[in-house]
Amino acid sequence: MKQQEIFERLHAKHGGAVTDFQAGAKDPWCKVDPARLVEVCRTLRDDPELDMKFLENLTGVDYPKTNEIAVVYHFTSYGKRHDFCMKAMLDREDPSVETLSGLWQCARYNERECYDLLGVIFEGHPDLRRVLLPDDWEGYPLRKDFTEKDDYHGIPTVRPNPIDLFAIKAKGKA
Q1: Most buried by CB count within 10 Å: which residue of 17, 46, 105, 150?
Q2: How far apart are CA 11 and CA 46, in angstroms?
Q3: Beta bridge partners of 70
Q4: For residue range 145-155, what is the model confidence (pLDDT) as tens digits?
Q5: CATH 3.30.460.80, applies to 3-173
Q6: Burial, 78: exposed, middle or buried (Cβ in 10 Å; 0-12, 13-18, 19+)?
Q7: What is the pTM for the complete model shown?
């Protein structure tokens, strides 16, 4: 099944919860209403014609100009040999969406990473805590307005540019 057909099947069943199919994108995608995400994803997984048994990837993208964070979901059906991509657009000031960990166990780690780096809250997640950064880290480094502090507990976070070091070393030899 092609992505356009998958979108049409979801739109026929869920109406306005699945909109704005971007067929011309390099990786075609559509928007999904965050309030109905689990319902739509259950259809992706359980509909025998869709058979999306695998949540391939889940990530986030910060869009400060529109005040949104997109949670991007990539699904795959090995049996049907097709895939599909959806984006849940969340309010950047309070990014929150229900967890998919009840449908796909692999969502647990990816949701923790998205929480850790972008601050997205996955409601109902069984263990939503930082996974890459220390528990006392301040801010979300994948947000485009994130400003890195000069140090973390006395450890420098900024390193010199290796090209600058090479230029200094080369200048000393001249």
Answers
A1: 17
A2: 16
A3: 61, 89
A4: 998 888 888 88
A5: yes
A6: exposed
A7: 0.88
